Amino acid sequence: MAEQRRARVPVAKTYKLYVGGQFPRSESGRSYPVSDAKGRFLANAAHASRKDVRDAVVAARKAFPGWAGATAYNRGQVLYRVAEMLEGRREQFAAEVAASEGISGGKAQSVVDTAVDRWVWYAGWTDKIATVLGAANPVAGPYFSFTVPEPTGVVGVLAPQRSSLLGLVSVLAPALASGCTAVVVSSAQRPLPAITLSEVLATSDVPAGVVNVLTGRADELGPWLASHGDVDALDPTGAGAEARTELAREAAGTVKRVLTVPAGEPDWTERPDIARLRRYLEPKTVWHPMGG
Amino acid sequence: MNMWEYAPAPESRDIANLKPAYRPFIGGEFTDGSGEPLKTINPATEEVLAEVSTASASDVDKAVRAARRAYDKVWGKMPGAERAKYIFRIARLIQERARELAVLETLDNGKPIKESRDADVPTAAAHFFYHAGWADKLDYAGLGPHARPLGVAAQVIPWNFPLLMLAWKIAPALATGNTVVLKPAETTPLTALVFAEICRQAELPPGVVNILPGAGDIGAELVNHPDVDKIAFTGSTEVGKLIQRSVAGTHKRLTLELGGKAANVVFDDAPLDQAVDGIVNGIFYNQGHVCCAGSRLLAQESVVDELLEKLRYRVSTLRLGDPLDKNTDIGAINSAEQLAKIRELTESGESEGARRWTSPCPLPDRGFFFAPTVFSGVEQSMRIAREEIFGPVLSVLTFRTPDEAVAKANNTPYGLSAGVWTEKGSRILWMAGKLRAGVVWANTFNRFDPAAPFGGYRESGFGREGGRTGLEAYLDG
């Protein structure tokens, strides 16, 4: 019996991209080895290319009207479902985070728990943010005028390089909660939790294309996102300081909304405020005459 | 066609108190600028109105220093309730000098006096009055109890609504505790310099507001000055992109209000006569020099012929001429340069195969005028359907279904405003949700109010002006 148990060979996972609800390899055929904090080989990750960025943007744009048009209650339930699915896979994520980030099992568990809670926090915002940021405008005339925040569109997210799961969730969840769709470039050195998170998203009623995850290098893929005409906003968190300036210059060509982010990686365990939601929302003012 | 004949009813130009020369306003004083002086002209007559001393790069530096000093020593730490009273004073002074400002605006800009008198100036006063009240209530601005001003705001404004755009910029900046260096447009500096006088009459502390006349190069100096914390720009998308690029990697906060190519969508159940007035207002108000102008009319196919007939009749009754005449509907194009641009784009409309109709109204012998023009049979690929003309030129396209209307309306890199005309309430709200624009006017057009946020999606810029939301552009939360 003992002999047989030892003979059991684990089934290793092939880590691919997550685009349009599918898990394709990079169209470039490229991959790169990913190691744990001690330098031991973990897996090969797909090395996404410019063409993968473009495919992901197409998928995100296609998914945008449905996601933006879904009721806020519905979006909230979907994001809560992500928390449920993540909760169910806590141990797997803790192991992956521990391996990726070189932290203890207990610390990794706490990071995963905070990531689950973050989804819950943002899930609750979907049907409240319009109340907080919107307004009935008391205009000086016989008009009914109101302002509602609407999602800005497709968001390009360069996820944090260090915090492979909690950091990723902290930058992705606000984009989704606001009703935007996203193209995410994961941490380059620690990409595996991002792909496992994609599996959670794929089984959480998040419609195909709402989130697209590319593993690869932010400095290679960021400029294509920044200059892409069909990307409305950019979160440059995962890019270095100099690269951020260049990205912001590129983004000016299409008047993108570029998030102002801290120079270093923040402490992701701190509870966020609504700044990220605000940056992904466009106040829309509607007027109609009043009369008997 | 029967036209009502009206006797001329010109407003007196003496009311403008025109002075032969105007100077930059820096640190509370009118001082000679060391830039090349410019002559500002009346676009309706091409006569020189006044000589204006302009700022140089060193004047920009002086003004930014004055603004910084005023921010550090006085304005930034003044209690909101005290700041408020200065801003209320400014609102009252604008109201008191409203007639003078209206006539001066019309002389310098070319817009009809009835517009400067009934819209530009009173709305400018309203902006100051509205924002004054915010100054001691910023804890309720939605950015938490510790919201702070940003510091020195560099503001660059266009020539289409000179005083009103100044008010949109300066009022929220002052209310939130920032100090200001503002550059008015090269062709329309005069009301801004009278506003500087108003700041003195209000005893606003020196340096809180600085006004620098000059051309685009001075605007560039200003936004690139290292000691500026905030930039607010209203103008072309082209220049907006340059500014966004130039501030990349700096600490400067930026809001942009840029161009537009708004769709005005008319459904077959719309009250057509009302819609016609809204279409006319949408595109011919202020000679079409409006970034949110309804420059693309999307008419449902079943009513397009009837609509065009009514529209042409209505447009042919618009009175074009002396902007100071109280009967005038369409005034002068602001500059020879803008007139040339409008002509070039209208010629492209003809050469690309759209059908041109131009109002038979007579044009004055001198001055920059362009008769209201309507193009029908316009295709989405034509330049007149894609590019901002910024003149009294309407492009008419058609659609069959609501989905097609939405697709065509949103088929533009811009997203500033849109209009919808229909009697069906559910359709209005559906359309309002689908149109990718910062302002949607339903069964009305071109409504503005300091309490209602205004600003664009996509390449029409980012940030809002007006309402609680507008304060966010000037606060660090």
Structure write-up:
The complex is a heterodimer of chains A (about 290) and B (about 475). Chain A has one domain: Aldehyde Dehydrogenase, Chain A, domain 1, CATH 3.40.605.10. Chain A contains eleven helices and ten strands. Chain A has helices at about 1-5, 50-70, 70-90, 90-100, 105-125, 130-135, 165-175, 190-200, 220-225, 240-250, 275-280; strands spanning about 30-35, 40-45, 135, 145-150, 155-160, 180-185, 210-215, 235, 255-260, 280-290. In chain A, the strands form three sheets. Chain A has a five-stranded parallel sheet, sandwiched between helices. In chain A, strands 3-4-10 form a three-stranded antiparallel sheet. In chain A, helix 2 packs across helix 9 and helix 5 packs parallel to helix 7. The longest helix of chain A is centred in the middle third of the chain and has 21 residues, at about 105-125. Chain B folds into two domains: about 15-260 and about 455-475, Aldehyde Dehydrogenase, Chain A, domain 1 (3-Layer(aba) Sandwich), CATH 3.40.605.10; about 265-440, Aldehyde Dehydrogenase, Chain A, domain 2. Helices cover about 40% and strands about 15% of the residues of chain B. Chain B has helices at about 55-75, 80-95, 100-110, 115-135, 160-175, 190-200, 215-225, 235-245, 270-285, 305-315, 335-350, 385, 400-410, 425-435, 465-470; strands at about 20, 25, 30, 40, 45-50, 150, 150-155, 180-185, 210, 230-235, 255, 265, 295-300, 355-360, 375, 395-400, 415-420, 440, 460, 475. In chain B, strands 14-15-16-13-12-17-18 form a seven-stranded mixed sheet, with helices on both faces. In chain B, strands 9-8-7-10-11-19 form a six-stranded mixed sheet, with helices on both faces. In chain B, strands 1-5-4 form a three-stranded mixed sheet, covered by helices on one side. In chain B, helix 9 (about 270-285) packs across helix 10. The interface of A and B includes residues 137, 232, 244, 252 and 257 of A. Strand 10 (about 280-290) of chain A pairs parallel with strand 18 (about 440) of chain B, so a sheet runs across the interface.
